[in-house]
Amino acid sequence: MKATVIEILDVLDAIQCIKNSQLLSQDQRSVMLTELLSEMPLDMFCHQSARSRAIVAEIIEREINGNQSPKAKSKVPTKASKRTSKSSQEELFLNPDGHTRGKSKTTGVVNQAS
Q1: Does residue 100 form part of some domain?
Q2: Domain carrying residue 51
Q3: What is the DSSP letter of 3?
Q4: Rounded CA gap, 37 and 74, in Å?
Q5: How far is CA 97 from CA 86, 91, 100, 101, 102, in A?
Q6: What's CA 87's distance to the chain center, in Å?
């Protein structure tokens, strides 16, 4: 079940046939190319022809996107959270009577029946 370069070249012929067909609209071409891409053999079955498979898959994706070169995705910097101007140690120095362990959890009184 290993895919060879010759089998992958058959996919290239199919791409040209879809691309040059006058009977298909642009949407229909896109659908057929997407299906063709999903029918490409997986990488695990292309030991000897992995690079050829990658090239053909890139050609199909380029044809689906209308011959536009793949754009690099730019990362949007995330906003940093606002920090308080005082550290926890400074707050303790300013308020020496403050509770150093933080807020405690208040427990409710449970009525016990005797």
Answers
A1: no
A2: 5-64
A3: -
A4: 26
A5: 17, 11, 9, 12, 12
A6: 38
| Phi–psi pair at 5, nearest 5 degrees | -65, -35
Instruction: Report the alpha-carbon distance of residue 61 to residue 108 in Å, rounded.
Output: 64
Tally of domains in the chain: 1
User: Nearest Cα to 60, choosing from 3, 2, 17?
Assistant: 17
Residues in the chain, overall count: 114
Residue 106, in any domain of the structure: no
Do the beta carbons of residue 10 and residue 53 sit within 8 Å? no
Give CA–CA dist 74/61, Å, rounded.
Answer: 20
- Is residue 102 assigned to a domain? no
Q: Tell me, yes or no, if the pTM score tops 0.70.
A: no
pLDDT in tens, 35-60: 988 888 887 887 788 888 888 889 88
Count the alpha carbons within 13 Å of 100 in the hemisphere toward its beta carbon.
6
Would you say residue 111 lies in a domain? no
Is-contact 1 35, C-beta < 8 A?
A: no
